[in-house]
Amino acid sequence: MKLAHLWSFIVLFNASCLCRAQLSEYFDEKLVVKPLKDGKVASTLTFTTVLKNGTPRDPELLHTEDESQHYSLFPLALGQVLPEYGVTEMHLTLNAGKWNYDAWGQPVEAGVGTGAELWAWIGDGALARYASSSSSPPLAAQPSSNNKSSVDARWQGLRNALAGLFCSSLGSLDELRTTSPVEVFRPEGSLPSSSSHQLRHASHPSENVCTENLTPFIKLLPCKSSAGLASFLNPHKLFDANWHGMGVHVLWHEDEGVEVRLTFQTVSDPLRSSYVRKQDWSLESLFGAKVEKACRAARSSLIQVSLPRNTPYSLSPQPTLAENDEAVYDIQSAAAAVEKDKPINVAMNYLHEFQHESEPQSSLSTSGLGATTSLLSIQRTLKESSQSHGQLSVVLRNPSSTPVDAVYLETMPWIVQFYLHTLTVTINEVPQPSSSSVFSNLSYIPAIPHSRPTTFHVQLRIPPNSTLRLTMDVTKAFLRYTEHPPDAQRGWDLPPAIIYILDPDQHHRGIRMYTPTLLVDLATPDFSMPYNVIIFTCTLVAFIFGSVFNLLTRKFVVVSLTKLGTPVTKEKGGD
Amino acid sequence: MSNALSMYRTIKRLGIPDSNIILMLADDVSCNPRNKFPASVYGDAGRKLDLYGDNIEVDYRGYEVTVENFIRVLTGRHPPSLPRSKRLLTDANSNIFIYMTGHGGNELLKFQDNEEISAFDVADAFEQMWRGKRYNEIFFMADTCQANSMYSKLYSPNILATGSSLVGQNSYSYANDQDIGVAVIDSFTHYVLEFMEGVGKTGKQSMKDLFDTFDPIKINSTPGVRSDLFSRPLEETLITDFFGGVARVDVVDSESEESPSLSLEEDQVETVERNTTQDDSRTSTSRKHENRLPSTSTTGREDWKARAARTWGAVGVVLGLVGAVVVRSTS
Q: How many CB atoms lie within 10 A of CB A417?
């Protein structure tokens, strides 16, 4: 009896030790599929790895040897790069296409700006002087020059390390594109209170996304692309989508540990490839693959499908769980046991052909397909009639019946500079005086040519059912000869402006929306001019020198001809 | 684009890992919105083989492909923040295969739209690599118009070079694809690849076999070979010396002293714990470094002594001669 007790105690003790060891890292994967009201399908793959009790590295200890890292699920590449530079929180997104908020609603992951966007909260080694609360942004301590340069140096190291890791040209996100907008890019996780942090944000709108960015992304996953939901990462289908974007987010939660969230969002168009105009989709048509093997390293593996409301449809196979609006498939549950000959292929088939919504776009109407509320309708244009100046115009339309408070953030490269005194704000075409409550809290960091971008930040209050238009004159720079890219006539891409909608109660985090990028046409010189100048100058010099030389060294004499026709020549030239 | 990608695919197939390959693509072709087949680049008119594939790593892309970055890669002069995947990281035991393709002219190759690299730049870069002991042998291949002029100015030892056309001659493309709308591969590269498809990881084909298959009539231009700087005979130089990365494992006794041979067998490797690193045309193992260092330091010291003795002896001889001359003249 006693022996049995002892034996069971030993077994239980070992089991609990093992369990504890296994709980130190866990990996979840999730796919969310949402049919949109214009016939497209938005899907978001999220792979989350959490390292329990992991902490970001104290920047004051950067010169000491770091502790050795042994991970089983946590990606080692990120686990080495981030402590190397003392980075607490990092978000990198690589997107291609324009996210259409009016038709597609809010994305699952907020970072949908076109091109590459990288922002990070980097500890600067100074002691935190102000306590940070969850609602207000953390105030960085007054950065001393040492801290600032150390943060800038580490920001450069981080950019280059990520550029090498993800095969993208993030190294060009240098000081020409880096700003520090702390109001809008608040940390999504917690920041350790042992040191204050500084924010660095940079964006490169003309970055291309292709298979070479996906390859290292896949290598960060425990099951790579052979099992579980990662088998949907098929570049031929993903990069065929109307919009696609991948994201790498590293955060620290004080009570949980370090979290790495890898996301891939796509908006695919089933109508494009269907012979009948039906919005039918299946996982195989969206991603080119079915789930044939479950990823054993995953703690949970779910597929969540948003169900349409107003149209008849059929969903196969039977979901594990179906609430009012969502159907959930649990890949790892015993009932849905995935085997090689029984792959899971979720498919939705519609009864009727697809028709666009006939009523005008209204955010709060039950437009049938999930809660795709569009809080604001945003539009940004750059009107340029000459090569030296233009006008930037931003239109925000609030379709709801409550006023919306939003922060408009513009991080414009120095090539387009604002004339701030020409800023005019109109509500429904009625100009607002500068004393009105419509815009407040204006902060402006002017650009330094060839060096720093503009940071323009203003808080706007848009009344219900009205349109706010913000216009400002801009001037375009004249670049130096060596600053032009090889295809200078294309123009320069301007990064998206960010509209940060504040939560009215200040309890929750705000929502970030991105405007599309702009293309600005700068004055380009005639690049063949150096060659022309050299040719002209050399010709001129040759003529002048030749003439002067001849005048100085040759003597011209008149030659007289005799009557018989034989010329009597005299010596030509000096003697 | 498919020229470089097909070479990339060949060397990956023959065993060289991505960490030992630097791929520079100046344009994003496969994910360009104008590409009818997204994330795919085809090298043949029937679209049978996707060269871009699912597993590609491009180290320099878009505006990063400049003459300056190319020469920095070769000579290794990088800012310290540059990541490892963008560095060449070769040493004196590495065989390097360099393939360049694009628009070219007499002694030049065009980069982007506003730059060009000249044959002199390439020759000087190779010389810097030789002086810095950054290569054992180089195989240089160029597929451009007038490509043979690109290797005409080389002067460093152990370089084997080949180009697709003579000076004054154009290189032509091989196949057009009607759906994609452009030519998909160039003639010289296509025929080189046709030969390479018959080479496996353990193939014994030699460089001479490759050069014998060059047919100016089929290729539409006259390829050239330059082997005067190359020390080994072409019949004995295997294709896999440059293209392949086959690891051969020699299990050695841990007690015995390593013979400090500066062996030029880049395929030889020593077991390092459980993972065998491949010593192929780009790197050498750290163990080899460790074992070599003590031996080179002792021989180095002896060499230094010998050299010092020689130098002083020479100085003494010169002084003696000067003294003899002075004495003679005064007497």
A: 19
Spell out which residues of chain A touch residue B115, defining contact as CB-CB under 8 Å: 486
Helix, strand, or coil (residue B108): strand
Residue A202, SS3?
strand
**Under 8 Å between Cβ of B159 and B95:** no
ipTM above 0.85, yes or no: no
What percent helix, strand, coil does chain A show, rounded to 5?
20, 35, 45
Contact residues on chain A for B78, CB-CB shorter than 8 A: none
3-state secondary structure of A354: coil
Using a CB–CB cut-off of 8 Å, the residues of B that contact A are 28, 30-32, 38-40, 52-59, 61-64, 81-86, 112-115
A17-44 pLDDT tens trace:
444 444 588 899 999 999 998 889 999 9
C-alpha span between A339 and A360 (Å, rounded): 46
Q: Would you state the pLDDT for residue A13?
A: 56
* pLDDT band, very low/low/confident/very high, at B103 (cuts 50, 70, 90): very high
Nearest to A167 among B38, B58, B84 (CB): B58
Which of A314-318, A404-408, A559-563 is the most confident on average? A404-408
Q: Residue B283 has what pLDDT?
A: 31
For chain B, give the percent of residues with pLDDT over 70.
84
Q: Pick the range with the lowest mean pLDDT from A265-279, A559-573, B62-76.
A: A559-573
| CA B225, B231, B236, B240 torsion-angle sign | negative
What local confidence, expressed as pLDDT, does residue A357 receive?
67
| Residue A375 vs residues A40, A91, A429, A465, A509: alpha-carbon distances, Å | 20, 24, 21, 11, 15
Indicate the angle between helix axes A145-166 and A76-85, nearest 10 degrees. 160
Q: Which of A84, A207, A208 has the highest number of chain B CBs within 10 A, making it the mutation to test binding with B?
A: A208
Can you tell me the distance from the alpha carbon of A508 to that of A406, in angstroms, rounded to the nearest whole number?
A: 14
**Measured between alpha carbons, how far is B185 from B163 in angstroms, rounded to an integer?**
16
The alpha carbon torsion through A322, A328, A333, A338 (nearest 10 deg) reads 120
**Model pLDDT, residue A570:** 56
Active site residues of B: 103, 145
Question: What six digits make up the tokens of A81?
Answer: 């790069």
Q: The tokens of A490 are what?
A: 């294309």
Please, which residues have CB within 8 angstroms of residue B254's CB and are 6 or more apart in sequence?
A: none
Q: Say whether B64 and A212 touch across the interface (CB within 8 A).
A: no
Distance CA A502, CA A457 (A): 14
Is the model's pLDDT at A207 over the cut of 80? yes
- Please give the model's pTM, rounded to 2 decimal places: 0.80
> Higher pLDDT residue, A337 or A221?
A221
Identify the pLDDT of residue A569: 56
Residues 6+ apart with CB under 8 A from B11: B21, B97, B243, B244, B245
**Cβ pair A169:B56 closer than 8 A:** no
Tell me how far apart the alpha carbons of residues A319 and A336 are, in angstroms, rounded to a whole number. Answer: 9
Which residues make Cβ contacts (< 8 Å) with residue A33, sequence separation at least 6? Answer: A41, A42, A43, A281, A286, A303, A304, A305, A306, A346
The answer to whether A156 contacts B53, with C-beta atoms less than 8 Å apart, is no
On chain B, the residues whose CB falls within 8 A of the CB of A209 are: 31
Q: Return the pLDDT at B258.
A: 46
